């Protein structure tokens, strides 16, 4: 069986839950397993676009209630997850991440005694339900004799996050506060064995992104391909082979029933969730979304599953200006679809929208 590019895009949009109503913010993240979130402002909308009707304050409230946390579960990149999904992912990825940063940690002088002091200082500062923003926790490190400059504080945080000690929790005036994970969001379940953990991760990946290839899943999780296949074997008939290397959940959502146009944030899983992104983004325009190939993914304008441009927002006192810059001139139907998508974004922010389309470059 061959899946056409159009069918693949439709199925991926349905799996991603883009503009599909009915889920609260934490439920939308749960269906995705994890949502890339190195930019907090962007990931708030990544969650909002998958939980239509929610506002930015609703998403922030999910963090404030401990339903969602942000941490580095894989690829050295911040993601948003349910707390127990963070624990699940760390059980498979933390050891590899620690090995990958060991050389840099040694160059920075972060050895076992330094980590022990940082661990004690962190527990002392955050225990009892307290939360500190990054700079305030770094001040605690200074008092403990640990210089957080030159990237040391960041590397200490990443290492302690791999242990499941800390995570980014409630929202603050700027950014988020750090918390002790087990105190902020206790777990009631014992960790699964490795096969079950691999099964859950693969099923979670496909639930929010399928159809995809095993290579896509390995690239997203940074797990060896053998582990992905082990998870697939454990999943049994829950995973269906669609041909051409594509797999998906046998119980997957129907396509259709969503708006034609979408304004997705930068770093969105609709693109970053796959190693091969050519079905969604014509490689001829990849430079327009990732300028210079430097890892900075711009916000994307999407019609019928295809990335056809980028967009920017400017929040002003009276409204939010949304400007779409297409790769090629848009037809009238696409302009109307983006105008409707901009209105949905404005509702998420709770602000009127001033919408326009820039001349295609």
TrEMBL record:
Species per Swiss-Prot/TrEMBL record: Curtobacterium pusillum
Alphabetically ordered keywords of this record: DNA-binding
Single GO term (MF): DNA binding
Protein name per Swiss-Prot or TrEMBL: Winged helix DNA-binding domain-containing protein
Pfam families: AlkZ-like
InterPro entries on file: AlkZ-like
């Amino acid at each position: 069986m061959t899946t056409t590019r159009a069918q693949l895009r439709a199925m991926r949009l349905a799996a991603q839950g883009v503009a599909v109503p009915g889920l609260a913010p934490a439920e939308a993240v749960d269906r995705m397993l994890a949502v890339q979130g190195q930019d907090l402002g962007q990931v708030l909308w990544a969650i909002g676009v998958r939980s239509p009707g929610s506002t930015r304050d609703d998403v922030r409230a999910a963090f404030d209630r401990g339903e969602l946390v942000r941490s580095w579960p894989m690829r050295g990149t911040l993601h948003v997850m349910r707390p127990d999904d963070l624990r699940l992912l760390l059980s498979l990825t933390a050891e590899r991440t620690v090995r990958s940063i060991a050389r840099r940690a040694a160059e920075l002088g972060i050895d076992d005694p330094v980590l022990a002091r940082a661990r004690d200082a962190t527990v002392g500062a955050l225990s009892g339900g307290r939360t500190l923003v990054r700079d305030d926790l770094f001040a605690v490190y200074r008092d403990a004799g640990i210089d957080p400059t030159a990237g040391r504080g960041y590397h200490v945080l990443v290492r302690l996050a791999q242990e499941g000690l800390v995570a980014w929790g409630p929202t603050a005036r700027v950014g988020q506060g750090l918390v002790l994970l087990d105190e902020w969001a206790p777990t009631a379940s014992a960790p699964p064995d490795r096969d079950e953990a691999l099964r859950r991760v693969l099923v979670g990946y496909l639930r929010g992104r399928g159809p995809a290839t095993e290579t896509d899943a390995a690239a997203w999780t940074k797990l060896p391909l053998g582990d992905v296949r082990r998870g697939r074997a454990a999943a049994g008939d829950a995973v269906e082979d669609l041909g051409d290397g594509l797999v998906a959940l046998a119980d997957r959502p129907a396509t259709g029933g969503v708006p034609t146009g979408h304004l997705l944030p930068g770093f969105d899983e609709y693109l970053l969730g796959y190693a091969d992104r050519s079905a969604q983004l014509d490689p001829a325009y990849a430079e327009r979304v990732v300028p210079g190939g430097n890892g900075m993914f711009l916000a994307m304008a999407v019609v019928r599953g295809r990335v056809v441009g980028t967009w920017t927002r400017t929040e002003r006192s009276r409204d939010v200006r949304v400007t779409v810059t297409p790769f090629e001139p848009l037809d009238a139907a696409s302009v109307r679809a983006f105008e409707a998508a901009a209105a949905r974004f404005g509702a998420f922010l709770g602000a009127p929208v001033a919408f326009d389309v820039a001349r295609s470059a």
